[in-house]
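Example record

The entry below shows one chain as it appears in the dataset: sequence first, then structure tokens.
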Amino acid sequence: EEIIPTGSNDIYVVRKGDQEWMLPMIDTVVKSIDLEKNKLIFHRIEGLLEDTTV
């Protein structure tokens, strides 16, 4: 829903319902982006997300 520029790497703000996640746009986190399907594929990193379904 939002992209926050930080100078070193962008932060993608992802929202689902009342939940919000901030994902750093780096290769170890974001694996692919499908703009047509509005889909972001990422690796879950321990401590980055709580145990929720995104």
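Notes for this example: The CA atoms of residues 14 and 22 lie 6 Å apart. The first strand starts at residue 2 and ends at 4.
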